[in-house]
Design brief:
Strand order of the largest sheet: 3-4-5
Structural class: alpha+beta
Number of helices: 1
Radius of gyration: 39 Å
CATH class of the largest domain: Alpha Beta
Shape: elongated
Order of helices and strands: EEEEEEEHEEE
Strand content: 15-25%
Number of domains: 3
CATH architecture of the largest domain: Alpha-Beta Complex
Largest sheet: 3 strands, antiparallel
């Protein structure tokens, strides 16, 4: 079938399109085609077979009506670190006053203030346990953080912390001079570090022999 050609003298009258409402039919409002993508700005084109315009009625709503907000409950999992109990040695005393925790041992005394999202309890066996007071993500983070800080206080006042440093290099050495630690690390000058109060530093000289 050959398409019918329109006479050259005919003119195509362009009329504004009407928008169909949600209830069907045309609502009588002009449709702003500029709001659509370029491919939808000219929806009605001349038919190549019948020489007629195919009418396309597009339903348009306000952009804000298309936005849908979905809400769902978020389940905050309990911190694996926060739920672990803290073992308290017999030579450590723990005093609690509300959100304030004070730990005293043979090496000193430390204190910590807990946030409102966390509470602490001491069992009959002497162990400490921390609990969340709120079911939020922040409370879950604070639960594990302050459990670790409380455990570090107990270890610090009872046994303390130890760090060993091994110097490997030609001419590298460490020497104690009164309250300073002097390090020779290959620079043009020795590195002198003051030892803070309450910290003990020991230097062990070892000679390594490489067997060939």
């Amino acid at each position: 079938m050959k398409p019918r050609s329109r006479p050259s003298g005919d003119k195509i009258e362009r009329k504004p399109w009407l928008c169909a409402g949600a209830g069907g039919g045309c609502a009588g409002k002009k449709l702003d085609m500029a709001a659509f993508s370029p491919s939808m700005r000219y929806p009605c084109l001349k038919s190549s077979f019948f020489g007629e315009r195919s009418l396309i009625c597009i339903t348009s709503h306000h952009p804000a009506s298309r936005v849908v907000f979905l809400s769902r409950p978020v389940q905050c999992k309990e911190s694996r670190i926060g739920k672990k109990p803290i073992e308290v040695p017999s030579n450590v005393n723990v005093a609690m006053d509300g959100q304030d925790v004070r730990v005293k041992g043979p090496l000193g005394e430390l204190s910590l203030t807990l946030p409102c999202e966390v509470r602490i309890e001491q069992e009959e066996s002497g162990r400490l346990k921390l609990f969340r007071t709120l079911d939020t993500k922040r409370a879950s983070k604070m639960h594990g953080l302050f459990r670790t800080l409380t455990d570090n206080m107990v270890v610090g006042v009872s046994k303390g912390f130890e760090k060993r440093l091994l110097l490997v290099g030609v001419g590298f050495r460490a020497v104690l001079e009164e309250n300073d630690l002097v390090l020779s690390l290959g620079f043009s000058h020795p590195v002198r570090m003051a030892i803070p109060e309450g910290m003990q530093v020991k230097v062990f000289v070892q000679f390594w022999r490489k067997m060939i």
